[in-house]
Amino acid sequence: MRYEKGDIKVRPLKDEDAEFLYNWLNDPRILEYYEGRDKPFTHEMVEEAFYNDDKEKVACIVQYKGEKVGYLQYYPLDDETKLRYGYTNLDEFIYGTDQFIGDSRYWNKGVGTLMIKAMVEYFMLEKGLHRLVMDPMTWNRRAIRCYEKCGYSKARILPQNELHEGEWHDCWLMEYIPD
């Protein structure tokens, strides 16, 4: 994915981005929402999680005004995940996304909203998808508000969907469906 909209630029992950990922994923403020404070990343974990041979997952860095500020990945949902999420039309093109603003100096400044809006525009214009989905934990109100501002809606609760800091948490299945 290469996409620019205003001050946001999304581009494929490069080798030189590994140190940013490592730093972000060792910051307790970031880990509170992504992966968990009990799981700080080693360099090897960054390599394994973000630089693997998964052909379906596309890993990207998000820049704001030229600064690396976050991470975004997207992937087509497989049939098993579609069914687990409650989708019965397996012919639909549905992509899932995961993302975070890794530089907390850019939190609460609208950067996440700009990132999500740019991503939605890219997928609707370039990919012609039926819907986009994500699954934030129900207690992550800031992320949920951001996604709702960008046109996502809460579809259903996914019970005990994510292991975070030693406990299973419910998540919202949120979806963006083009008009």
TrEMBL record:
A GO term for molecular function: N-acyltransferase activity
- The name on file for this protein is 2-aminoglycoside phosphotransferase
Limits of the N-acetyltransferase domain: 8-178
Kindly state a single biological-process term from the GO annotations of this entry.
response to antibiotic
- Cited InterPro entries: Acyl_CoA_acyltransferase, GNAT_dom
Say yes or no: keyword Cytoplasm present.
Answer: no
Task: List the keywords (alphabetical).
Answer: Antibiotic resistance, Transferase
What is the taxonomic lineage of the source species?
Answer: Bacteria, Bacillati, Bacillota, Bacilli, Bacillales
Q: Name the PROSITE patterns on file.
A: GNAT
The organism encoding this protein is Rossellomorea marisflavi
PANTHER family named in the record: LYSINE N-ACYLTRANSFERASE C17G9.06C-RELATED (PTHR31438)
Looking at the Swiss-Prot or TrEMBL record, what is one Pfam family this protein matches?
Acetyltransf_8
